[in-house]
Amino acid sequence: MRYGQIRQFDVANGPGIRTSVFVTGCTHHCVNCFNEEYQDFSAGTEWTEKETQQVITYMQSPSVSGLTLLGGEPMQNTAGLTALVKRVRQCIPDKTIWIYSGFTYERILRDRDKKELLSLCDVLVDGPFIDALRDPGLFFRGSANQRIIRIRDSLQRGTITLLWPDGR
């Protein structure tokens, strides 16, 4: 797995102060993507144990409320991110993990590796960014087609449960 950046303190990609990992590689190529440079699978730096320890150290801060995974496309980096999330859960089980994906929840469920990563997280922001549906007034997402999904509730109930049904 490769990554473009790790933000120790991020307030734009989930509630509170979060640590964010931006992986590289994405085949969606959304028009006006906010991280176009991270679409390249060879961009960034190779992930190592050093970065895993760095993320865990950042998350141990009482001011950090959780981890956010985005990119690029996290669901096209499942092996590396699944290992990272498992380690984070072992060391810091009480903080939330958000994951952003251009894949829809329904499509993620049809792929074993994507579903495994999804099941380790708390909240999914799903769907591709659609420039024609851009809405800067929405919480933690760029376009109106994207949903903020409570993963555990949705998996248990078999129906999607949204964190903020009205998106604001």
Automatic annotation (TrEMBL):
Annotated GO MF terms: 4 iron, 4 sulfur cluster binding; [formate-C-acetyltransferase]-activating enzyme activity; metal ion binding; ribonucleoside-diphosphate reductase activity, thioredoxin disulfide as acceptor
Pfam families per record: Fer4_12 (PF13353)
Keyword Oxidoreductase: yes
Chain's role: Activation of anaerobic ribonucleoside-triphosphate reductase under anaerobic conditions by generation of an organic free radical, using S-adenosylmethionine and reduced flavodoxin as cosubstrates to produce 5'-deoxy-adenosine.
Protein name: Anaerobic ribonucleoside-triphosphate reductase-activating protein
Swiss-Prot/TrEMBL cofactor(s): [4Fe-4S] cluster
E.C. numbers: 1.97.1.-
InterPro entries attached to this UniProt entry: Aldolase_TIM (IPR013785), NrdG (IPR012837), Organic_radical-activating (IPR034457), Radical_activat_CS (IPR001989), rSAM (IPR007197), rSAM_sf (IPR058240)
Gene: nrdG
Enzymatic reactions: glycyl-[protein] + reduced [flavodoxin] + S-adenosyl-L-methionine = glycin-2-yl radical-[protein] + semiquinone [flavodoxin] + 5'-deoxyadenosine + L-methionine + H(+)
